[in-house]
Design brief:
11 helices, 2 strands, Hypothetical protein af1432, mainly alpha, 201 residues
Length: 201
Amino acid sequence: MDDDMDRKKFFALLSHLTAGDITQVQLAYWLAKNAHREQERDSGERYFEHPRDVAVTLISHGVNDRDSVIMALLHDVVEDTNTPFPVIINLFGHEMWESLFLLSKVTPVFDPVTGQIFGRYKKTDDEYYAELMKAKVSVKSVKCGDRLRNLQQMGESWPLEKQITYARHTIEKVLPLAQATDLWFYEVLKAEVDKILAQVH
C-alpha cells in the first residue's frame, strides 16, 4: 500500500472510468473525508485513510468499477457517522444505501419526523454475517478488503491478545465469506491470520 497516497494518486488509479463515474467517486471521496473528519484510528492516523486504503486494495485487485469504489470509500459512514440516509440515497441511490446498510454492524435508527438519529441497532455476529453471505459479490468484496486492511494495520496499535482474538474471528466468520467471494481474498486473509497466530507459539 502506498503510504504517500493522496487525492491525485487515488484518482489516477481510476482513469478507466467515465467522466460521469469519476464525478460520482469524487462525491463519495468528499463525503467520506468530511463524515470522518473528526475521527482517528487506534494508530492515531486520520480515519479517512482507512476507507481510502480499502478502496485502493479493491482497485489494485481489479475490483475497480464505480459502485465498488464508492462502496469502499463509504463503507463505515453508516455505522460510524451521523450522515443522514437521504444524503446517501440522493447522491448514490437506494441500492448503494442498502449495500452500506448491509456492511454496517451497527445501524442508525432515524426519527421519521426530524430525520435525526435517536438510537442505534447492533446486529448479532450471526445475523450480520448471514446477511453478508447472501449479499452481492461487490458487497462481500468490500467486507473482505476492509478485514484485510484491518489485519495488515492492527499490529501498529493493538496488543497481541486482541490481534489473536481478531484473527480467530476472521477464521470463523470472514474466511467463509471470502471463500464464497474471491479465492484471492481467501488466500491473502488466511496468510495474514497465519502470520498473527504464528506469534502464539
